[in-house]
Specification:
The strands form two sheets. This protein has a three-stranded antiparallel β-sheet, with no helix packed on it. Strands 1-2 form a two-stranded antiparallel ribbon. A hairpin with a 4-residue loop joins strand 4 and strand 5. Helix 2 crosses helix 3 and helix 4 crosses helix 5. It is built from nine helices and five strands. It folds into two domains: 132 residues, Arc Repressor Mutant, subunit A; 88 residues, no CATH class. Bound molecules: iron/sulfur cluster. Iron/sulfur cluster binds next to loops.
Length: 222
């Protein structure tokens, strides 16, 4: 296959939709970085510390370990441990021994950490509020496009953790064909439609990413 010019080569980019999608996603990534940096600066925290506090506020105990943070944010355990130690020294996080695994500890927010995390968790609301220009159908299409992109990036080894229905052992695609909610969750025993597929599910149990662009799951999602 001929090598295409880089995404950032404007003479090529102007006439290439793929490159423009990538460039637009990069602008959005920049917006997230700015928002995280701003909220962190207000509270004397680094962007990753803000993300850790929000993660610990909402994720179940099973994911609240140094190893879980390292996987979710694609960092080394040493880097996570340093950031967690900084949060401990600020009195926002504490480690407690995990009774089910003596080599590991569970990370909990302290009451101060919980209060702060609730305030910090609004950091991405600006982006959500900015979606009001679009209707539900358009947003659902975008959601499905993004989930498929995440699956592809998981396949490529770029994204490690994405607890989405599309990669879940309990996902039953096209279990209810011809209905507005054609899929099914075998764990929750609940029909799922394009708008109710989950992006970050606490009950998710992963399977090998084996969804191809042409299979029935993907076709029915579009
Ligand atoms: S357990 Fe969660 S991720 Fe898995 S299919 Fe059900 S709703 Fe989707």
């Amino acid at each position: 296959m001929t090598q295409r010019p880089p995404v950032w080569d404007l003479t090529f980019q102007h006439d290439d939709v793929d490159s423009k999608v990538v460039a637009a996603l990069e602008r959005l990534a920049q917006a997230f970085r700015v928002l995280l940096w701003r909220v962190g600066q207000t509270h004397g925290l680094s962007p990753i510390q803000v993300q850790f506090l929000c993660y610990l506020l909402y994720q179940p105990k099973v994911h609240r370990r140094v190893s879980g943070l390292a996987q979710a944010f694609r960092l080394t355990k040493a880097t996570v441990s340093d950031a967690v130690s900084a949060l401990e020294s600020k009195g926002l996080v504490r480690r407690r021994p995990d009774v089910s695994d003596r080599r590991s500890s569970v990370l909990d927010l302290t009451p101060d950490g919980r209060r702060l995390a609730r305030r910090l968790a609004a950091w991405a609301n600006t982006v959500r509020d900015s979606l009001s220009f679009a209707g539900l159908d358009e947003k659902t299409s975008v959601l499905n496009f993004l989930m498929r992109l995440i699956v592809e990036l998981q396949r490529a080894g770029v994204i490690t953790v994405a607890r989405m229905c599309l990669t879940c052992r309990f996902f039953r695609p096209d279990a209810h064909p011809g209905t507005p909610t054609p899929h099914h969750c075998a764990l929750l025993d609940r029909p799922l439609g394009p708008a109710t597929l989950r992006v970050d599910c606490p009950e998710h149990v992963g399977v090998e990413v084996a969804i191809s662009m042409g299979n029935p799951v993907q076709r029915s999602l579009v």
